[in-house]
């Protein structure tokens, strides 16, 4: 199904356009928007207003004046490319933007994705570790996730070799939602050998990135990717880690973001356990030896039976695939706006409005203030 870029507001396109300006970074994008009141106003602000903003020098003001039209056009073209890849974009002022990620100081102003996500799931757990994983780490993931499965956590990782990809695959086997945060655009799965898993993940979760289409996996993008993994998660579990590496970076970022960090202790003779043991020794990570212990440490509760089998599952048999897709989304996300339903289901807004009205007449969906919809229980 096509997802028309017309569903993106001018503010959404303007936020992306601002990020294309030469000499601007994530912090300045958000600072401009904060001072000017909205992304559109920030992109179109006159010089006299821009000069009043701290940290905005003459060069950046000139870039805004001379490049804003071309950047806005570039943003619209980017969204067309994103649409062709079956992806979506959400910006940080939208209600659909993950609230956990929005809470970190260096959150990306935009996030691209492909798949079906429940960003406000009650529990998100990042599982990270070395690319040179061992059977010890893999068996730990098997055991932990089997115990955690009843809590229905979202499993977040980086789609890399070793611990990351094993965590994603195990989550899929247990029918848990899983998110792969990438250092490339959504059109380029890195490493390419994980493409089949990434596609499978799109049915329950999917891939996320702050990088535009055709972005290459350059070295600086990986630490930046790790901050998103940490920001999206309630807790980070380091399974196996070398003395230095991405897992260590993610753990330290998580501490900065006031997230809980746990590590699996290992044999001091094993290189793959040195990083975990160091995190524990330095009181950066707590020790956990089972999934149940991790859940207890976090105070996680099992979902009630009512949320597992709501009344809304009693639906007519003659519904279309798109109608069922809408109902499935509302069941797992709760009350959400029509624009968010549109980009998650990839049903154009004009068609979606008609479908929602029919579902409302059928007593399956309820209309709420602010163009929001929910299941009529």
Describe the protein.
With 377 residues, the protein is an alpha/beta fold. The protein has three domains: 5-84, DNA polymerase, domain 1, CATH 1.10.150; 114-298, 3-Layer(aba) Sandwich (Rossmann fold); 305-375, Arc Repressor Mutant, subunit A. Helices cover 46% and strands 13% of the residues. The protein is built from 17 helices and twelve strands. The chain has helices at residues 10-20, 26-36, 39-43, 47-50, 58-84, 99-102, 135-148, 163-173, 195-201, 221-232, 246-256, 271-281, 291-298, 305-308, 321-333, 338-345, 349-361; strands at 88-91, 110-116, 124-128, 154-157, 178-181, 205-209, 235-238, 260-263, 286-287, 336-337, 365-368, 372-375. It has a nine-stranded mixed β-sheet, sandwiched between helices. A three-stranded antiparallel β-sheet has the order 10-12-11. Helix 11 (246-256) links the parallel strand 7 and strand 8 (260-263). Helix 7 (135-148) runs parallel beside helix 8 and helix 10 crosses helix 11. It starts with 9 loop residues before the first helix and ends with a strand. Mean pLDDT is 89; it is low at 1-6 and 306-313.
List the helices and strands and how they pair.
Blueprint: H1 10-20, H2 26-36, H3 39-43, H4 47-50, H5 58-84, E1 88-91, H6 99-102, E2 110-116, E3 124-128, H7 135-148, E4 154-157, H8 163-173, E5 178-181, H9 195-201, E6 205-209, H10 221-232, E7 235-238, H11 246-256, E8 260-263, H12 271-281, E9 286-287, H13 291-298, H14 305-308, H15 321-333, E10 336-337, H16 338-345, H17 349-361, E11 365-368, E12 372-375
Parallel strand pairs: 3-4, 3-7, 4-5, 5-6, 7-8, 8-9
Antiparallel strand pairs: 1-2, 2-6, 10-12, 11-12
